[in-house]
Structures are given as C-alpha cells and as structure tokens.
Amino acid sequence: MSQSNRFKRKKTFRNTLEGMIPKILLACAFLSIITTFAIIFTLLSETVSFFQEVPFLSFITGTEWTALFSEAQQQFGILPLVAGTLLITVGAAIVAIPVGLASAIYLSEFAPERVRKVLKPVLEVLAGIPTIVYGYFAITVITPMLRFFMPELNFFNALSASIAVGIMIIPMIASLSEDAMRAVPDHIREAAYGLGSTRLEVALKIVLPAALSGVIASFVLALSRAIGETMIVTIAAGATPNLTANPTETVQTMTAFMVQAASGDISFQSIVYKSIYAVGMTLFVFTLVMNLMAQWIARRFREEY
Amino acid sequence: MATQDTFEGKNTSSLSDESAFQKGSARVTYRRFKNKSAHALFLGATLIGVVILAILLYDIFQRGLPYLNSDFIQNFASRRPSQAGIQAALWGSIWVIAVTAPLTFVIGVASAIYLEEYSQKGFLYRFIQLSIGNLAGVPSIVFGMLGLTIFVRQLALGRSVLAGALTMTLLILPIVIVSAREAIASVPNALRHASLAMGATRWQTIRQVVLPYSLPGILTGTILALSRAIGETAPLIMVGAVTYVAFNPTSLMDEFTVLPIQIYNWMGQPKEEFQYLAAAGIIVLLAILLSMNAIAIYLRNKFQR
C-alpha cells in the first residue's frame, strides 16, 4: 500500500456493510412517506373519475344519498352521511369528554399511587377492546336498556351507537389528558398548596389551565377517532342515510356506508364503487383536518415552564 | 390570641373580629366540602370505566360461555348454529398475524433505528415524522381502501391472506415505529459512547448495545400493535376477507376470514343462537388479546430499567 492512501478506508466487507446499512434503513423509513402518498393518490384517482359522472356541487350539497338503489333512482348527496357522522360524534363527545376529563383529573391529581396502579391497567384494557365488541355491547346491552326507558326507540339508532363510541374513546381522552396534566411541573402545584389551596382548586385553577393545550388536543384527537370509527356504527346505528339531528332515529355514517357498499357484490367499474372512494376521501379530509388541528393546538398554545 | 390581634390591626371593615374569623372558617369548611365532593365525583367518573368493563365482560360471558366448547373451536362456519364453529376464522387470524408480525417488526424497527440513530434532523427527517404522525390518525377503513386498490387490484393479489396481511402491516406500522423510537431513545448515550470508544462501528454499536437494551420496549410495543391488528375488522372487510369460508388457508394466496369478521357475520344473522355464537367468538378473541396484553405488560415490568 502506498503512503498516500494509508489512511484511506479499506474496502472490507464490514466497511461496505457500514455504508449500506443506513440506506437500507432509510428505505424502510421511506415506506411511511410512500404510504401517505399512496393513500392520497388512490383516493384521489377514483374520486376524480367519480366527479366526472356526479357534479361536485350536487355531491356536497345534495340531501339524498341513495347510492345502492337502482341506477334510475341513484342520488349522491353526501349531507345525510355527514350529518349521521356528526350526530354520532357529538353524542360521543357529550359522553366521553366529561367522563374522560374527570378520570384524567382524578388519576393525575387525586388518586393515591395504589389506586392509580389498579385503575390505569383497567383503562388500558378498555382501550384495547376491539370495536366489534363495543358494537356487540351496543346492541345487546345499551339499546335494550335505552328501549326500557323509551319503548318507541328504533332498534338501530344513533343514540346507542354514540354512547358506545363515547365509551370507546373515554380511555383515549383520559390517558392523553392525564399525560398532559402530569407534565405540569410539581413546583407550580406546590406553590398553590403552600398558599392553602385545596386539591380541587389546584386541579381546576392551576393544573388544568397549564395543561389546557394538551387536554384540548386530546379531545380533538379522540373525536377524529370517533369520526373514523366503523364497526360500532355499522352494527348499532343502522343503514339508512338520514339527514336528521334526532339521535333516536336510524342513521348511516360515512364509514358505515363504505362497509355496506364493500360487503355487497359490486363491479370495479360501477359508480357505486367509485362513490366509496369519494366518501372515503371526504372522511380522510375530515380526520386529517382534525389531526392537524390537534397538532397545531398542542404546539401553538403550549405553556412552557 | 395573636391571630386575632393581627386581624384587629388590618381589618378595616365594619365587621367585628369574631364574625370575620367565623366567616373565614365557614369559607374554609365550604372549600373543603367542595374539594371532598369533587373528589368523590371524579372517582365516580373513573369508576364508570371499571363498571362498564365489568358489565361488558359479564354480558359476553353469560351469553357465550355455554356455547364455548371444543366443537366450537374445531368446527367450520355453518348455517346451522349447533354445528357452527370458528376454526377457519381462528386459522385465518393466525395466518394474517404470522405474516404481519415479522414484516412490521423488521420495517418498524428499521425505520425507528434510522430516525433515532442515523438521520440528520433536516427536511427528510421532518417529512418522515410528519407522515408517521398523520398515518397514525388515518381511520383504519381508509387503510382498507388502500389495501383494496393497491394489493387486491393493482398487484392482483386478490382477496388473499397476503393482501390482508400487507394491509394490516401498513395499518399498525406507525404504532410500532413510535414505540420502537421511544425504546431506542431511552438507551443512555453513555452506553453508545462506551461502545464507540472501544472501536466498535456504528452498526456494531446498534446491533450489540442499542438493540439488546431496547428490545423489551420494542417487543412490548410490537405485541400491543399486533393485538390491535387482531381485533381490527373494517380494513379486512374492505379488502374482502369473505365471511363464509369453510376451510383453513393453506397458502398465502388463499381466501380467508378472521375472527372479528366471523363474529360480525354472526351478529348479522337473524337466528338468535348466532348471537350467542358471536359472544362465544368474542370470548376467544378477548382471551387472545388479553393474553397478548399480559405478555406485553410482563415484558415491560420484567425488563424495566
């Protein structure tokens, strides 16, 4: 070996490997970017061809959704599906936000360590239960219970489904909000205790305002999850697109329509098939906006200590 | 009564010392009362989760347990409830997970290593991170549309085990990456420096120091993600995991069904016995999920440092 390249790296197997590894790893990491683009691209391409047959304006303003009817009677106005989705989401928020937030405050500010050690795993188990099981729970327990008080209630109704969806997102709100509240540094709490505050006052006037950005972000994330929830609403809310704000009625959500249409035998060229993508695209936009909003809230309104 | 003296000095209102003191202590009593009732209220809200979990499990066990026997595990789907079983669905789930597990583990850990150990914190890094964050919030049914378009149709895999498993891989990849990153980031830098100082290369350090140290954390995250995949229904309905399958898959290209889809199918049957079969199926599903969670928690506690 000549003197000049004495310090040059030898081309051994090990050195080649060292150079290759990061490239292979990068390729794997790149898969996430590819997936993101693949989702947008697949949804867009069929959606575009859907809009060549159905005008965009009648899609977003139409009040009739009869995609699975015979061709002469087909109407593609997405408002009933959006209304169904929002009805379920609002119902779920009414159930889950108070309970989830109260659980978070309890676990973060009140619970003794021993109690916490028992309750946390229970919430984790609740979070790990598949949505199909919550759907079963909705039609075997919640709906009969509601019908005991309201005998007139439809078997498939938005109320029962939104309670079940609410139960499903309680653990999510509780654990994300609790994380945000526990991240508030202790010296702030201790200062308030030192001034004679009760635990409640510390929780509501000190910790909650300090953690507010994280808490609100957890609400938004959980509701975005509720919007995309599929099995509970397919099982318990029914399959009738319905432009209504009445939770005792049968409704169909965007996700439930997608399942219903995909379960049947439809040709890949048909307008119904393309309409699944248009609905999927709408759903994707809803959840993407909410997720970005959650990230923005968490960043923009964060209190730094 | 030293405190009373100071009151006299400072209190300029027309109230006498005595009543000011009493008023103060009444206020303290009131604040304590408020604190105590809020404590009870928050505890109550947290217990709602426990109570719901108990009712849910009781309801399912009470309905499903009588139907849960060795015939139920060994029989295939049938139109007669007395002969229906979950063998095909159980094996379908096992096949899907057997393909999904190694894929997500390898790709997920590779992505995490790249992001934590190699990547410069530039544009590409932020872009990958943004993609992963958004993918985690995309509804599972949208992943189902992706799988239907790319795997079932474009790559012409059909409604096969492979198409389903690849869809599941993309769905849980973000969860695996996030938890693997956390595990890798928790490895103390001192260990890396020690290894590099001994003359080890970067890859040797990762393979022999970083990975062994973070493996329990990575495994915990992967197992939890896989248990989510086992319970997912909607994406596989979109991919077209057919509901009536009376055989076990024997190759990656076979048609298949999985436990949650079989359960969903039974729930839609008019005969009441099928509802009990669905409950029995849910018991099997929950048993699998809870044992996986138990393994994950065991790993986490055993190797926690």
From TrEMBL, chain B:
Residues 90-295 form the ABC transmembrane type-1 domain. InterPro entries: MetI-like, MetI-like_sf, Phosphate_PstA. GO terms for biological process: phosphate ion transmembrane transport. GO terms for molecular function: phosphate transmembrane transporter activity. It comes from the Bacteria. It is found in: Cell membrane. The keyword Cell membrane applies. GO terms for cellular component: plasma membrane. The chain crosses the membrane at residues 40-61, 88-115, 127-151, 157-178, 274-299. Belongs to the binding-protein-dependent transport system permease family. CysTW subfamily. NCBIfam families: 3a0107s02c. This is Phosphate transport system permease protein PstA. The lineage of its organism: Bacteria, Bacillati, Bacillota, Bacilli, Bacillales. The gene is pstA.
